[in-house]
Protein 1
Amino acid sequence: MNNKRLFGLILGISAAVIINLLPLKGLSYQGKMCLGLTLMTVVFWALQIVQSGYASGLYLALLIIFHVAEPSVVFSPWLGSTMYLVIGAYLIASSVKSSGLGERIAYKFILKYVNSYKSIIISIFALTVMLSILIPHPWPRAFLIMSVMAVVIKSANIPREDSIKIGFTVFAASVPSSVIFLTGDSVINPLAVQASGIAVSWMQWFIYMGPPGIIASIITCFLILILFKPSKEIKINKKEIKEKLCFLGPVSSVEKRTIVWLVIAVVLWLTDSIHGIDIGWITLLISMLMSFPVIGDILDSKQWGEVPVHVLLFLTAAMTIGKVGGVTGMNNWIAETVLPSTIPSNPYLLAAIIAVISIGIHMVLGSVIAVMGIAIPALLIFTEPMSISPIVITLLVYSSISIHYILPFHHLNILVGQGEENGMYGQKEVLRLGVPLTAVVFIIVFIEVIYWKLIGLF
């Protein structure tokens, strides 16, 4: 066991014990136990003492063992559609990848639009946004685009230092682009909607978050072009890319069936406010039908291996924090104890305070989902006297942390791409972009206040 893991283990257990020994006024036994176990788990997540699934499973088990909440409350996330949206999203993403459709789209786009280093960077962002409609999870999108960029890097003989910049861009682009569509990140986005307690359709999400997400993507793209300039001029040799595309052959029957089901899924996502079916059930239904004979035959048994159990446990634990925190009184106690006593009436000042609080917690906890589980319930209680729609407060917290990171552990989209075998980049590249990106968060939050006031949301 290395020192970091040992330190994290001792720190996490100590936090849980100390919280339960302190005479915290206004907090019940269940509330103190919930707060202690939550802090312990967040420390385990942040310092990565074990894989997130193990820490999450431990947290869920201890909540029940110590009678903090009933199993029906602890595992309540499985009674809604969010968990099944995640399962369906991973299966649909697998179908796009395994059928060859995503690779075909990427190669054709590069052949038409990519000619230089600058166009490579811009095309990564454009492809990421395009594929976010078809592949409802950022990780499969990023790894698919990375596999295509590996061909570009090889065919153009791009130097290693510039290859690292391109690899980092692939995963950095997945962060702001995931904000644009509700299905852009099938884990975080529906979770934010659920935390608000307000029903938001696919189209409503796009109206609220589409423009801010697009602006955040453009600013991030410009920052990368400014901060990560190429060491020399790059010329794209498209011959190898054409060969890769030819190797795929004509559009197969599997790809055609995949296209049909994707079109059906997108249409149903777009019209969820009309037919009234939750996008989680739509996503699960489409993914299941993709496996059936005649109408599907796209997915088979091996695709279930694409659904990571540890992510489902992590998501369950992160969602449970807010739920159990509300039942035990932890959320109310945090709102009354930690947050300011007065509420600013100026919407821009309020947005700035929410951003500072959210970013501050995010810097410590690292997990976007964990921060939403703690910050959103507390801030909703804090702003309740202002009669502001809960979706506004929720989206301000979401925006403050969903596009923010300083180090890789602050955002899973960045963390999964780190390393020689993935995006080739390390902590140095992340830090270089992450510092100025913190200022971008405040720019986006202020833009959202202006925009939401114009459309009548705020």
Protein 2
Amino acid sequence: MPEMSDLAPLLYRSRWLQSSLAGEARSRRERPRFDGPEELTGRLSAAPGGQYRADLVDESGHREQVSCDRWAGPIPFPRLLSPAWLLAHFDLEFTGAAEYLGRPGYSLAGSRRRASRGRDGDGVTAVVDAELGVLLRYEVTDRGRRSESAEFTSLAVAAGPEAEPGSPDLSDDQVRLLCRSALGPLRLSAELRERADVPTAVRLGQAALAATDLGRRTRWLWQLDEDPPPIDRAARLQVALPGCYRIDAIADPAPEPACLACDGEHLWLVYPDRVAIRPGAPPPDGIWPVIDPAWLLDGYRLAADGTATVGGRPGLRLVADPADLLMRGPLSDTMLGVDRVEATIDLELGIALRQVCSLEGHPVLGTELSDVTAQVDRAAFRIDPAPGTRVITGGLLAEAGRSPARAAWMVARGTTGIALELGRRWAARPRP
């Protein structure tokens, strides 16, 4: 029976078919805010070289013909024909051999990866074709209820390619490295540095918004009086997945906690004058793209660009060209728009030693790990407050050191200030 380290490259390579196929398929996606689900049925064909054709009918009876030649045009039933999204969004396991429509396959099940950038549910089951790597069927669930599904209802495969199939962007070993399918649970200790050129990112974003009709009409509202400052932060990071981590700020991050530590059951937030205790929770969202770069496997044009050494550790250098992407700073939690990501992936641990995110050719967000080891101190994930330390378990207001009355007063004051500023800008706006 195969391991996930064998099935991961099979799922990734399906985008570069070696044989032609033709069949009928159907999909269904629940839409809670709409009257009824989104449904699609149709007949499709696919050939090596990224050639796709389909005749599709939606839930309203609207018919559409689509075609794709390599990267130009939409792929019909993309989640069946290009299932690398499973690697990017779910932790998968092989659950047994399967047969569907007379074709041999493998059954998979998975739970959502924390680094996932999609809006998929929290679980998935699927049957992958043992030869082609396409999905024969899949079902995504969210909180125990089906949210999306698709399947072939008929499928025929031609013997031999009809065109030059092309080569996948990444080798099998590079795919395994990105999704960590051949590696054990992550153990990591390192210094993490984040640098963000926020002024440049804001300037470029404002220029793009100002070029739109809506942006021109609302310039008085969103244009800032002064540039926000750049960001340069550092912290000591320790991780022992699945549930343990610790982040110690190297410089004072006030008013944010100087230390976050989680042992899987409890989360400690250490401030200069108090320690707050919450139920255990995963690391901050911005940390995950650094320690789990599998998100790069879905929706981005990847190019392997040799190897590079970062902090004395060898890594695989990758370039990803997304059309539009929001990246979150791992320490500042700042969200910035980017259109290119250059990453160096550690060849031993499968983590992003360095990431440089650019917008219109300008680097706007960078992260780097140094002093990396696979050794961690398990005792570091638990905080024992010193005698006399104020320990808080009363929720966010108590953690901030404010009573409910004080918090309500600050909210009212802030709301009033925002209203006054908007009124000032409205009164000062240019008149036609």
